[in-house]
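Homework help board

Subject: predicted structure for assignment chain

Our instructor gave us this sequence and asked us to write out the predicted structure in token form, then describe one feature. I got the tokens but I'm not sure how to describe them. Can anyone check?
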Amino acid sequence: MDATLDEAAVRTAATVAAALADTPTVPAQAGPADAPVARSAPAAAHAPASAPSAPQHRPVLTELRLSAFGPHRSALFPLGPLTLFAGPSGSGKSQALAAYEALAGLGAGATLEEAFPDPRSRIPDRAVPDAQRRRGFRLGCTVDGPAGPVRLDLAVQAEPTLRIVGERLSQDGRILLATALRDPGRRSVQAAWLTGGAVGVTRAPLPDDRLGTALLPLRVAGATAGQRQVLAAAEQVVVALRSVFPCDPRPDRMRGPAAPGTGRLLGDCANLADVLRRTRHECGTRHALLAEAARTGCAGPVEGLDVREPAGGPVTAVLDRGPARPATELARLGGGELRFLALALVLLTGPGVLAMDPAAELPSAQQALTVLADGFDRGLDRRQSDELLRLALLSCGRGHIRLVAAVGERTAAAARRLPGAAVVDLTA
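My token output:
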């Protein structure tokens, strides 16, 4: 788990530090729920222009599309290695991240109910139901990787019954998989996927509460060129969606000792002390980098991060204040300090230290971890948010981590001055 910083990363850190030093403080109607998936969504007025990018060697989401989803209507958001959503309260920052997280859950095999526990909150306020009293929303993404750009689009009916009523997987304008609701009385959709050869397409029912794309590797043999194209596209999308870690540190859950466990960080970071125990023993370089970051993000002198491990008892993490000074337990730290430490740890580690389920059939070098962080700078002061931006650019610049986060205006203003950071400005 140990890793050393290369010269390019060091130069990136120096550039970010210099830039931060100069930074000043600073409704729609849903369509019929069973309508086919939209062929394309026009770019939102507030979405930044996307720059040409080099071919992706790791599957990653390069675009998020939302239609009649919360406050978003026909919105298209390009996603880069470091993408920050900014805007006033109610502009849809959290809704965009929730859509990404839901797609990730569906790609990992979650049911629609698990991905959208409160689907009504995703329906636009003024959405009018159709004659059958149906309302819903649409979302989609583009995944780039070794197979080239692949589009996934979903139409979801939220009322009266939560179900996927349309799914489309396509590449270069060619439909590889399409599903449609034919009989509202059945809990299935009719699916058709490319086969090629004499058959052309294969038709079969699929469940209406799961992502059909994630089921294709179990249904397609790969005997024809068409089937192999379908498999390559589906597997690329699934790998990208599974390589996601939603993170929202909860200081109230991080203050107490943690029971010894696997040392894999939970999404709320409640077991931070146990993970620090693991990194101290197994990830010396990264643990040292985290301790260095703590000197900036935590009040008072910090010599290092340590843990207390009574035999068979819970693990307590402490800040080492140096000789002749008592250590400070995490329980005594402020909420901002705890959130800072947790987010810094996430940015400096990888899938092996996070409680997530990446595609085990692919080596980690062929996957890119994406961290989703709503309220990335919540409760942080300027020095803490600046240090997290520095760490994010350092980690994202090396290619193995991507960050999609919602931030406040001060952090967004700082990020706009940094090469390598993209800010999506939302308006109410």
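Reply (TA_rk): Your tokens look well-formed. For the description, you could write something like this. The CA atoms of residues 39 and 173 lie 9 Å apart. That's the kind of observation they're looking for.
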